[in-house]
Amino acid sequence: MIISIKEIRNFLISILIPILVGYCSSAIANILAGINISTYYSQLIKPGFAPPSYIFPIVWIILYTLMGVSLYKIMRKGSDLYKVRDAMFYYWLQLFLNFIWSILFFGLDLRFTSLAVILIMIVIVSIMVYKFYKLDKLAAYINIPYIIWLFYAAFLNYFIWVINR
Fold this sequence. Notes:
The chain is an all-alpha fold. The protein has a single domain (5-41, 52-163), classed as Up-down Bundle (Ferritin), CATH 1.20.1260. Helix content is 81%, strand content 0%. The chain contains seven helices and no strands. It has helices at residues 5-33, 37-43, 55-75, 82-107, 111-135, 137-141, 144-163. It is elongated. The chain starts with a helix and ends with a helix.
């Protein structure tokens, strides 16, 4: 099978979109917090199950890449189809919520609000995965690590909020 330059470009753009959204969110959070997110995170009182700060960028680059692959797979179905547009609504909504989470948690120090956002995000991503499943099973399955991470992150967010009040 021969892959066109256009398909390679679309694939790379699909992967870069969530990565850039995550990067921009972190950059804005850094600016608002006045310190690096890693430094901010290290200064918080955390529960024993909290990972070291260097784990987060590794996990997120993997998750953003998987999100990008799923975006590419769904968009290949044709943006003119109602089912695709419906699924993509949830994709863009979860990406927006993902974007504002870091800003709320790190940049604005709104840990309870960020907890509410991450809980909403779990619901939206679950709906997105269901919609993706109807279009492309692999596009849905590769987002399961994202949902698992969101549950863990919500749990961590909750305990950091409680401990640091």
